[in-house]
Design a protein that fits this description.
Blueprint (H helix, E strand, L loop, with lengths): L1 E4 L7 E3 L2 E4 L13 E12 L6 E7 L2 E9 L2 E5 L4 E4 L4 E5 L4 E6 L9 E11 L10 E5 L6 E4 L2 E10 L2 E2 L8 E8 L3 E4 L7 E8 L2 E3 L2 E3 L3 E4 L7 E4 L4 E7 L7 E3 L2 E3 L2 H12 L7 H10 L1
Parallel strand pairs: 1-3
Antiparallel strand pairs: 1-21, 2-3, 4-11, 5-10, 6-9, 6-11, 7-8, 7-10, 9-12, 13-14, 14-15, 14-16, 16-23, 17-22, 18-21, 18-23, 19-20, 19-22, 24-25
């Protein structure tokens, strides 16, 4: 596995079976299965009057997932969606041929002290589905499959794994799941998990072949079939991956696509205010809050 620490490190360095580097993508690894981007949201505390305000912006060629551990984000998009994302729920936006959205602190929380912590994840769409009609699906935490296995509590957030399937509408073979331990436990998944794998250690510690890994580290196996480790008690791990897509993906700003020319077209459309019919409406929305 290769470790990617939250602290900025431009290049990866081998430590046993792992590399220490930065969040996905990084120099030695630009994707894990169809996952092309993993970024932390926080952890932070927003003081009264301090807010999250990510203005309307476009995407193409990807599905984007917001998954919160703490806090609340108001998602609004060019489909007319307006939904508050709460901890443990999934916001799954498939941009396809083009979508605009914003992410903000809800109005009623703007003068309150609030925590904010979570993950934002991009999944590249298969080539034949890159131009899908855009959509947004909100799945409550209570709707996600949850069970105990090998002495840990498992929640399947997206995709399919270990005989379970999440209701989140993914478009390729992948999995994204949460593991929580109450005591020290050894885990071996191996071929039970599809394709390439990566691991984000949120809390506690894990061990592998004499190496101990700390909170806020991101681990990518050097061999896709390696997936055995020990979780210390009260640890929380997010394990994800899937089958790599057949074609390389170009990325620029918020755009992901197998055809770089399509990204150039999307950039020009955004500059020309022609990206989405809802562009002006959303800009007015951003200026009113």
């Amino acid at each position: 596995m290769s470790t990617i620490e939250l602290i900025e490190k431009e290049q990866a360095t081998a430590i046993g079976d792992f590399l220490v580097g930065r969040w996905l993508p990084f120099q030695q690894k630009t994707s894990v299965g169809p996952f092309v981007f993993v970024d932390p949201v926080g952890p932070t505390v927003l003081e009264a009057g301090e807010t999250l305000d990510i203005a309307p912006h476009p995407h193409i060629g990807l599905s984007a997932m917001t998954y919160l551990f703490e806090g609340t984000i108001l998602h609004q998009d060019s489909l007319g969606t307006e939904v508050e994302l709460q901890p443990g729920a999934v916001g799954w936006m498939t941009a396809g041929k083009g979508m605009v959205h914003s992410e903000r602190t809800p109005n009623y929380l703007r003068q309150m002290r609030t925590p904010l912590h979570g993950l934002q994840v991009w999944v590249a769409l298969p080539k034949q589905q890159e131009e899908l009609e855009p959509s947004f699906v909100h799945v409550e935490a209570s709707e996600l499959p949850a069970w105990e296995q090998q002495g840990v509590q498992i929640k399947l957030i997206a995709g399919e794994a270990l005989g379970q399937k999440s209701p989140v509408p993914v478009h390729s073979g992948l999995f994204f799941m949460e593991l929580k331990s109450t005591h020290r436990v050894s885990l071996t998944f191996g071929a039970e998990l599809l394709g390439e794998k990566a691991l984000y250690l949120r809390k506690g510690h894990i061990q592998h072949e004499g190496h101990t890994y700390m909170p806020n580290q991101f681990l990518v196996p050097q061999g896709s079939h390696l997936c055995s480790f020990e979780m210390e008690e009260q640890s929380v791990v997010y394990l994800f991956g899937g089958e790599p897509l057949a074609e390389e993906r170009a990325m620029h700003w918020n755009f992901v696509h197998s055809d770089p020319k399509r990204i150039e077209e999307a950039k020009q459309a955004w500059e020309d205010h022609a990206f989405s019919s809802a562009f002006e409406e959303m800009n007015c929305l951003s200026n009113s809050q």
